[in-house]
Design a protein that fits this description.
The chain has about 400 residues and is of the alpha/beta class. The chain folds into three domains: about 50 residues, no CATH class; about 210 residues, P-loop containing nucleotide triphosphate hydrolases (Rossmann fold, 3-Layer(aba) Sandwich), CATH 3.40.50.300; about 100 residues, no CATH class. It has 13 helices and 18 strands. The strands form six sheets. The protein has a five-stranded parallel sheet, sandwiched between helices. Strands 3-2-1-4 form a four-stranded mixed sheet, with no helix packed on it. The chain has a three-stranded mixed sheet with strand order 5-7-6, with no helix packed on it. Strand 9, helix 5 and strand 10 form a beta-alpha-beta unit. Helix 2 packs across helix 3 and helix 4 packs across helix 7.
């Protein structure tokens, strides 16, 4: 019988399937660990009949994320979540601090909370982090590479096409899914992204294999050079944290290496630091804390032209007449739009009122005051009493929208 060389090759058996563990070389250096399905007869031919008895055996796979007390095996199940090999060590981290401050700006403490939750509470749902800037050399990609260095094989870089693909086995069990140069401008892309950011389970599908439901805990970090329409974000949406990133004043070609060297000190800091926030939503943060002008800009850009025209028209009436609420029916709005040279169909106006603004008709036909347009009056708008079922919108609602 040939001599068994356990150090040279490594095999495992999960359920009834045999795997060979290999280190696959990467283009940019280093290796990534892979499990290749193997043949039992081939194993016997290479190492003899007795070798297979020494192969470690597991009942199946599981995915249990933990960075502090990582367990490679959980109750005879092989943990697919990858350990990170950083050892927290007390020290300073000026480069990491400057990067986090550059990315999160005035929300620096919230940014530290975000990274601390990723490290210490990897299962916690977190908002979709979207970094935008039309400028070049802003550090967005450097931040993504820092996250990759920090959480290693638990971070995957996807393209827009990867995100849309039905095959998701390569990213469904990751901590972070990052997309550089994101452009998910279709409504179905936006809905899928929002659903994935809050779902607790997800069906994994690989080529040639049955779909399998697993716990889903991945967080999304997106970057884009498009500040206006990188993704579709509707008014009232609370799942996005949008940051506009400023241009870097200097360009240090060794900056990423400095960041990597400071990771142990930064992780030690995160283990000792007290969170500046408490859990106030399913995505931890109170949505009001994460609201930014960059988010508002995307929401405004996603509004259709007719909605913007109607909003500007009503706000103009309010400013001209000193009112804070405006009442109208569909025909009132159509007449006003026509008088101000805006073409619109009745169904389009109804869609804005009901679907975008979520306004409800008055329950009964009542007398209400609306406004008409007259180009020859000093104040172009004058009150007109009407009877019927009407909508009412306030200045506060319009400004919020």
């Amino acid at each position: 019988m040939s001599k068994i060389n356990i150090e040279r090759e490594e095999f495992i058996r999960v359920g009834t399937t045999l795997y060979k563990l290999v280190n696959q070389p990467r283009l940019n250096g280093g290796y990534v660990k892979k499990r290749i399905p193997w043949n039992a007869e081939t194993l016997r031919q290479d190492y003899g009949k007795g070798y297979i008895a020494h192969v470690p055996k597991f009942d199946g796979f599981c995915t249990v994320p933990d960075h502090v007390n990582y367990r490679p095996v959980v109750d005879k199940f092989l943990n697919l979540y990858e350990p990170i090999d950083h050892k927290p060590m007390e020290g300073d981290f000026p480069s990491v601090r400057s990067l986090v401050r550059h990315i999160f700006g005035e929300q620096y403490e919230l940014g530290l909370d975000y990274l601390q939750l990723l490290y210490l509470h990897p299962v916690q749902k977190l908002p979709i982090l979207l970094l935008v800037s039309e400028e070049r050399n802003t550090g967005k990609t450097t931040f993504l590479n820092f996250l990759k260095a920090l959480f290693q094989n638990n971070v995957t870089f996807n393209t827009n096409e990867d995100f849309r693909s039905q095959f998701n086995a390569d990213w469904a069990g990751k901590l972070l899914i990052v997309v550089d140069e994101v452009l998910l401008s279709r409504r179905e892309d936006s809905e899928r992204l929002k659903n994935l950011s809050t779902t607790l389970s997800y069906k994994v599908e690989a080529k040639g294999k049955d779909r399998n439901e697993i716990a889903f805990f991945a967080k999304f970090v997106l970057c884009s050079n498009n500040e206006h329409l990188p993704v579709i974000i509707d008014a009232g949406e609370t799942r996005y944290w949008v940051r506009k990133i400023k241009h870097l004043e200097s360009d240090d070609t060794d900056f990423l290496q400095k960041l990597k060297a400071e990771i142990p000190a930064f992780l030690y800091f995160l283990t000792q630091r007290k969170l500046s926030t408490e859990k106030e939503s399913r995505m931890w943060f109170n949505p009001k804390l994460l609201h930014t002008e960059a988010l508002q800009r995307i929401i405004r850009s996603n509004r259709n032209r007719l909605e913007i025209e109607m909003s500007e028209l009503i706000l103009d009436i309010m400013a001209s007449t000193g009112i804070d609420t405006f009442s109208f029916c569909l025909n009132d709005m159509l007449l006003l739009l026509t008088c101000t040279q805006v073409k619109a169909e009745k169904y389009q106006v109804r869609k804005v009122i009901q679907d975008c603004w979520k306004l409800q008709l008055a329950p009964n036909g009542l007398t209400y005051t609306t406004y008409r347009y007259d180009a020859f009056r000093e104040c172009h708008y004058y009150p007109a009493k009407q009877v019927g079922r009407f909508y009412t919108i306030s200045k506060e609602q319009l400004e919020t929208l």
